[in-house]
C-alpha cells in the first residue's frame, strides 16, 4: 500500500529513478531526444521524460503537438488532480504495478481522467476486486472513465449478491446499468475429435452451467472438423478460440483454427499459427492470442506465437526457456505466467514481459515427485495445483504464490474425490469453479484457503476438460432450455 508520499519517495528512489533537483521526488530517466520536463503538482516537482508522457497520455500528446507556449517550456504547472495521483501514474509508467487503497484509487482515477492516461486505466482495471469494485464504478462514472466504469460494472454484476453495500450504495442510474448486463457463466467443453458428419457425437456439445436450475445446458456444438483433443482453447472478448488439436490414433494434427462468437451464435475460421502444433497452451490477453509451446510429431516445442485479432496475423515472439507441451498458464494483474518443469521435482514459474518480449523466471518450488499441473489466479495470487507424491493423481495439493510479496504458502487440506483430481479451475470474483464427472464444486477464497461453498452437478463426459467464463446474451439462455442429455443421449455414469 502507498501509505504516504514520504514512504513512497524512499521506495521510488530504489527503482530505476533519480530524484528531481532539491525535492527528493522521483523522476524517470530516458535517452529520448525529446528530453525531460519538470511538472509541478500541488507544490511537488516531478522530472519526467517527455516521450514517456507523449506515449502514455492523450493530454500530453495534444499539448506537445499544439504549438502552445507550454509545449516548449521546461517546467509546467498542472491543476485538477493530486500529486499522489500523479506519483501513482509515474510508478505505473515506469513498469510497477502498485496495490492501491481506497484513497489512492480515487487519486489515480482523478489523474487518469484528467491526463487521459490509458496505462493507468488498465492498471486500475487489473486491480478490480470485491473490496474496491463499487468505489471504482462510482468514481470512474463520475470522472468519465467509461471503460473502467464498464469493467467495474461487469465485475459487480458477477458478485453483486455477495457485496456488502449493494445495491443501496449506488445511484439508481448506475444500479440500472449493472442489472442490465449479462453475468459470467461457467462453460465447459470436453475432448472431441472429428468424426463422420452423420454421427451425433455428444462430445461436440459446448455446455454451460445453469446455476439457478442446477443443471448443464447446451450452448452450441463444435464444427464437424474441429478438434478439442490436445487443442489450445481459450476465451477472449466473449469469444471462444480453438487452435490445433489432433485426430486419429497417430495424432494427425488439425490444421484449422476456429472462433465461436457467443453474441451471434456463429462459428468462423481464422488463420492457424505458422508452426502447426498440438497440446498447445492458448492464452487470450489484450486483443491477442498467445500459442505457447506444444508438440509436433511427438516432439515438444519451445516456440511461441502471438495472434493479433484485429489484423488476423500471427508473429513469433520469444521462445520458452525450454520445450514444453500442455503448459499450465494463468493471468494475474494483467500479466501472463506459465509453469515449466525442471528435473528433479522442480516447478519454475516464468512471467512473459510484453514490453521486453522475454520470459523471465519469477520463482520456483521443489516438491518430491510432484510438479505443477494447473495454475489459476485470484487477485495477486497464483494458485498452483499439483499431484501428490508418487504420481498420486487423485491427491491434489495447492501451493499459493503472491506476486506482490514473492512469498509461497501452502493451502490447508487436499482437494480430491473419487471421480478425478482438481486440474481445472476458473475464477469469478472471489469464487473458484472446479468440475469433474462427479460434481461441480464452488470454493470461496478466504485468506490463505479455499472453503467449499456450493455443490453443483458434474460434467458427465470423459476425457480432458476445458473450462472458461462467457457472458451469454439473455435471449440465448432462454432459447436453450434443453439439457445436454436431451440433445445428445448421455451414457450412464
Keywords:
single chain; 493 residues; alpha+beta; Potassium Channel Kv1.1, Chain A; four-stranded antiparallel sheet; 20% helix; disordered N terminus
Characterization of the model:
20% of the residues lie in helices and 37% in strands. A 4-stranded antiparallel β-sheet has the order 6-5-4-33. Strands 7-8-11-12 form a 4-stranded antiparallel β-sheet, with no helix packed on it. Helix 5 packs antiparallel against helix 6, helix 5 packs parallel to helix 7 (133-143) and helix 8 crosses helix 9 (172-180). It has 493 residues and is an alpha+beta fold. The longest helix has 14 residues, at 102-115. The chain has 11 helices and 33 strands. The protein has a domain at 5-127: Potassium Channel Kv1.1, Chain A, CATH 3.30.710.10. The N and C termini lie far apart (50 Å).
